[in-house]
Each structure stands twice: as structure tokens, then as C-alpha cells.
Amino acid sequence: xxxxxxxxxxxxxxxxxxxxxxxxxxxxxxxxxxxxxxxxxxxxxxxxxxxxxxxxxxxxxxxxxxxxxxxxxxxxxxxxxxxxxxxxxxxxxxxxxxxxxxxxxxxxxxxxxxxxxxxxxxxxxxxxxxxxxxxxxxxxxxxxxxxxxxxxxxxxxxxxxxxxxxxxxxxxxxxxxxxxxxxxxxxxxxxxxxxxxxxxxxxxxxxxxxxxxxxxxxxxxxxxxxxxxxxxxxxxxxxxxxxxxxxxxxxxxxxxxxxxxxxxxxxxxxxxxxxxxxxxxxxxxxxxxxxxxxxxxxxxxxxxxxxxxxxxx
Length: 313
Fold this sequence. Notes:
The protein is an alpha/beta fold.
């Protein structure tokens, strides 16, 4: 029979194994599937430290529910069109953005759980417009502290029946209509602040320099440095060391990572910081210029006195 896949035994090794695992076709095809208590065919993709949703075409639209809890997903989007999917679980992630075309990707989504994520403003929720969501959980998101939080969600999701495990009451629907008016989905989509790759930037943003938008150059790592990073991860003895290494890897600044590699003897020693050379300031330069001018003036005076003495003789 087929041998089970070998996994690291120690908890530290499991932590190393789990760092930044992409959602690949192999991961999807090898994931556990089961029927949940609602008799929905579910695929278990939780606890894999997945940073982004991708390659979902491998699901072949064969599941009613997808469990992506306990990962590192920052953006809700990136699905291929999944007509069958009705339940999406995304608790304990880092979701702070929702794709504006989510309704096109998941046209029959009815249950969405986004507990313990990073949604802060009403604008972060506008990507849900158009989704036929009936049950929604946003527990432990900062947006729940906003005034009119429930009314706003009732406003943008007309089909919503259960919000944060509490039923939506008719009075809330009336209050949402009085507070926000009738929903104009097309206008809301235009106002959504989420930028999708491939879209054309607005004229106002095209005129702004790239540096002002906070863009960073794509990071590249040579083969020798990549091998040193692998050895560094393998030699880590404590969770604190592993956390420092992970933070350095994810940072845009290579200085900390280079320092860790050099400290473990896996790379060249860092060159000492260049000593600061004294640069004359403007005041000193002005004083030097004044001094040179005085010396030239004294020389001219002496020449004038010698010429007068020669005339007297």
C-alpha cells in the first residue's frame, strides 16, 4: 500500500515545516475531506500557514464547504468560480481586504465565518456586496466597535438573516434603510478602496510617484543565501530563535537576516560600519574664506606701503 507522508516529529520541527506553505494543487488534492453535521462535503485546509488563496481550480467545484481557518491569509479573494460552495470558514487569519468581485467567484455563498481577523472599517466590508450571504460572523474584528455596525451590514447584505449569532430583526432593516437609504450596489463597487491586480490605476494615482505609494522593489535571494537560510532554520533550538528568523525573512530589510546568518557562522562576517568622516560645516567654511580674505588684504597693504617708500626715495 501507499506509505504515509513523513512529517517532522518534534513541535519545533513542525513549526519550521509550517512556515509560509503555499496552497498548491498537491496540498489540495492531499487534503482531508469529510461531511460536516449539515451534510456538506467539506475540505480541510486549516492550520497550514497559507498566506494567500490560490490554485482553487483543483477543487473542481466539488465541495459545499471549505475550511481555511488558522492560516495567514490577508485577502479574501483569488477563488476560481465555485458554484457549489455555500460555506466558507476563515477564522483566525489576517484578512484585512475583500476582493470586489467575490460575488462573481462565489455566487452561492451563504455562510461566511471571519472571526478573529483584521477588518477595521466599513469600506473593508464592501467586497461582500452582491454575495447572497445569510449567515455572517465577524467576532473579534475591530469593525464591530464602529457605530451602526449591524445596520451597515444589513444595508449591504439584504439577504442577511444571522449576524454574529444573533438574528437580524425587522426593526434593524427599517433602521438601516432610514440610516443609509436604498443600496446602490454599482456605486458602492466604484467606491471600494480595494485595488485588484490587473486593474488600471486612476489618473490621480498614476500621477503620484511610485515611492510615494510605499512600493518596494521585488526581493531576490541568491542560491548561497537561500541555503544559509535553510541551515539557519534547521539549527534553531528554541521558539524565540525561530520567531526571530521568521520575522527577518518576512522583513523588507536584509540587514537583520544577514546579521543572523553571520552570527551562526553560515555566511561572511558583516563589514564594520563606516566611520563618520568630519565634514566641514558652512560656518567653518565661511570663517576660512574670511581668513583667506584678510591675508590677501594684508598683502595688498604691504605692497602699497613698499611702493610709497620707493617713490619717496
